Amino acid sequence: MRKVIPVAGIDVHVEGDGAEAIVMIHGWPDTYRLWDAQVHFLRDRYRCIRFTLPGFDAAHPRQAYSLEQMTSLFTQIIEQACPEQKVTLMLHDWGCTFGYEFYVRNPHLVSRVIGVDVGDKSSLRQSHTLRESLMVFMYQGWLALAWMIGGRIGDRMTRAMARWLGCPSPQALMHSHMGYPYFMHWFGGRQSYRRNGKPFIPSCPILFIFGRRKPLMFHAKAWTDDLLRSTSNEVVAFDTGHWVMSAEPERFNQVVNDWLSRPY
Q1: Domain containing residue 27
Q2: Domain count, the chain
Q3: How far apart are alpha carbons 90 and 185 in whole angstroms?
Q4: Is residue 169 part of a domain?
Q5: pTM reported for the whole predicted model
Q6: Which pLDDT tens digits describe the chain residue by residue (264 residues)?
Q7: What are the distances in angstroms from CA 232 to CA 112, 179, 220, 260?
Q8: CATH number, residue 88
Q9: Are strands 87-92 and 47-50 parallel, antiparallel or unpaired?
Q10: Is residue 237 domain-resident?
């Protein structure tokens, strides 16, 4: 089965006939296409649900979304695509931030979580050194500025940063509209992600996958150590950068499939 469900102006792509549903949420500067290899591998056994984040499609109006708006959208998508069913979340980058927040607010809708390369932001802020914090602010501030400037200059700034970070997604699909999470995180005022985000302490099983070859880690070791206190959780390191699922898709898919196949 393959179909597209419109939800609040977002095209939700559904592939597969499995009884269990996996909702795949990407981050910056990607689209729903980030998960192509995973959908191809998993669609025979699972129902794969994915979409491009609001504001990340160049055809959509330029807008910054709050955590409340984002988690509300996810609720609508899951309730329409998977009525009366819990789902597995597969998350990457900002998809982790938004997906973890969704889980905290709606644990009754989630059975398992697969987080890729970004852990709990609350514990991460406490673990970064001053130098690492400055590095984070420099690249994220650049992208927040690109969003504020917009237009061709903002687009060029966005694509330049994506090249520098080694993003594998097509540059033609990247634009400054995608930078609003960075703006909202640092300069969102009362709706700032830093102010409104809640700690992610999962009570459901979680698989956390991360790449080791990058200048900054986006998770705290203390957080993964806590995860491993439960035998239902697993933490797997890859010798890749940030986009693990693109750099080593075959191993990534196998790790995910093996974990999903485990009894709980």
Answers
A1: 2-127+200-260
A2: 1
A3: 22
A4: no
A5: 0.96
A6: 899 999 999 999 999 989 999 999 999 999 999 999 999 999 999 999 999 999 999 888 899 999 999 999 999 999 999 998 999 999 999 999 999 999 999 999 999 999 999 999 877 666 678 888 889 999 999 999 999 999 999 999 999 999 999 999 999 999 999 999 999 999 999 999 988 888 898 999 999 999 999 988 999 999 999 999 999 999 999 999 999 999 999 999 999 999 999 887
A7: 10, 35, 19, 11
A8: 3.40.50.1820
A9: unpaired
A10: yes
